[in-house]
Design brief:
This protein has 441 residues and is α+β, with helices and mostly antiparallel strands. The protein folds into 3 domains: 100 residues, Rossmann fold (3-Layer(aba) Sandwich), CATH 3.40.50.20; 70 residues, Dna Ligase, domain 1, CATH 3.30.1490.20; 227 residues, D-amino Acid Aminotransferase, Chain A, domain 1, CATH 3.30.470.20. Helix content is 32%, strand content 26%. The strands form 5 sheets. An 8-stranded antiparallel β-sheet has the order 13-12-9-10-11-14-19-18.
Length: 441
């Protein structure tokens, strides 16, 4: 097992990694920007090193500085968390070349699956259904029009790399195609440095279902069931639940087998997520693979008993999976709400500031993953997520009630948060009946 690990991230995921390491007897080094000096991950870690100024480009996205920090502090492993450089194949490769173990999949798998065009081809090879669309990159309007004529409108134009809802355009009719294509190419290039896009048929009235997989170097690959991530605004998730109200054991088994097959074809190890669209007729289509730890991993842990971060670290150290078999049947129901420092009344504008008073909820079945502390100044430079509240109960109705109780207890004074929005959504008839689809939240 590793002796010392660099936590190459910040916020609640950095806290999550530090705790997992300490339970495994691994010393941690928190890599932090000047804006995060004195933050909870820094306080909890055995050692900490400043990697640069506040802007992410100068700190958490500065690969050379992160690797130098690991070298100077004598680390033998590095965990990238999620976001920032977690799915950067070049960074994963450079980590290995620096004689550090990258806590994640092999850089070859990250490179193959991070390119959505290559991932679609791997899915076909694995026998996983993909949405109808272009066979490869679409370069101009003429080629795009041909593809759209074959598959029919509406369509989605998507960036070949990246994620987070960037580089995506919904095109409902031919007259909007040229403008939408050019805008998507420009946004993809600006956001990811790669302007390649492709086209796929828009699956209407669908759910966003993702399957959690774990794989080790000994050839074992298992799935841990699904998460329903259909509650989104502007392609950003704000609530996830496990299991999905629309997935039974048979469909879970089928999706799980596809996820395992794709993982094997890609040569995948570590934790990962295979994402699908499932329409009202239960037709399933491969969407993409996230080659990292997901923000919403706690709900899977709550219904399976698995410790996904612990397994990531163990697998990277060459140990076999400790998680038995596949989870076609899950225990109870879990819901995660993402609490952000944003103002729902002002179009969800970020609202960083100082936390003057704080009370985090607790009680039976409640888990809170957060880096908040009293008097903590939420910096304006990063994602606005400040806490994840997770509620588990024997069934969905009780989990919803428990979540409402927990959010009602939560106090974050000094900043505006999305708690009122989340409470309102939990009380909506559409959610309570399990009828939330993409675009209806």
């Amino acid at each position: 097992m590793f002796k010392k690990l660099l936590v190459a991230n910040r916020g609640e995921v950095a806290v999550r990694i530090v705790r997992a390491c300490h339970e495994l007897g691994i010393r941690t080094v928190a890599a932090y920007s000047e804006a995060d000096r004195g933050s909870l991950p820094v306080l909890l870690s055995d050692q900490a090193v400043c990697i640069g100024p506040a802007p992410a480009l100068d700190s958490y996205l500065n690969a050379a500085m992160l690797l130098e920090a690991a070298r100077l502090t004598g680390c033998d492993a590095l965990h990238p968390g999620y976001g920032f450089l977690s799915e950067n194949a070049d960074f994963a490769q450079a980590t290995g070349e620096s004689h550090l173990t990258f806590i994640g999949p092999p850089h070859e798998a990250v490179r193959r699956l991070g390119d959505k065009l290559a991932a679609r081809e791997l899915a076909r090879q694995a026998g996983v259904p993909v949405t109808p669309g272009s066979d490869g990159e679409v370069r101009d309007t003429r080629e795009a029009a041909r593809v759209c004529a074959e598959i029919g409108y509406p369509v989605m134009v998507k960036a070949a790399v990246g994620g987070g809802g960037k580089g995506m355009r919904r095109i409902r009719q031919e007259r909007d195609l040229e403008t939408g294509l050019r805008m998507c190419q420009a946004e993809a290039h600006a956001a990811f440095g790669d302007g390649r896009v492709y086209i796929e048929k828009m699956v209407s009235s669908a759910r966003h279902i993702e399957i959690q997989v774990l794989a080790d170097a000994q050839g074992s690959v298992v799935h841990l069931g699904e998460r329903d991530c259909s509650a989104q605004r502007r392609h950003q998730k704000f609530l996830e639940e496990c299991p999905s109200p629309a997935v039974d054991e048979n469909l879970r088994h089928k999706l799980g087998e596809w996820a395992i097959a794709l993982s094997r074809v890609a040569g995948y190890t570590s934790a990962g997520t295979v994402e699908f669209l499932v329409d009202q007729e239960r037709n399933c289509y491969f969407l993409e693979v996230n080659c990292r730890l997901q923000v919403e991993h706690p709900i899977t842990e709550m219904v399976t008993g698995a410790d996904i971060v612990r397994e990531q670290i163990r697998v990277a150290a060459g140990e076999p999976l400790a998680v038995p078999g596949n989870f076609d049947r899950l225990c109870g129901h879990a819901i995660e709400c993402r609490v952000c420092a944003e103002d729902p009344e002002a179009d969800f504008e970020p609202k960083p500031g100082r936390v003057t008073d704080l009370h985090l909820p607790g009680g039976n079945g409640i888990r809170v993953d957060s880096h908040l502390m009293p008097d903590y100044a939420i910096p304006p430079f990063y994602d606005s997520l400040i806490a994840k509240v997770i509620a588990w109960a024997p069934n969905r109705e009780q989990a919803i009630r428990r979540m409402r109780r927990a959010l009602g207890e939560m106090t974050v004074e000094g900043v505006t948060t999305t708690i009122p929005f989340l409470l309102q959504f939990l009380q909506s008839e559409r959610f309570q009946q399990g009828k939330v689809l993409l675009g209806t939240a």
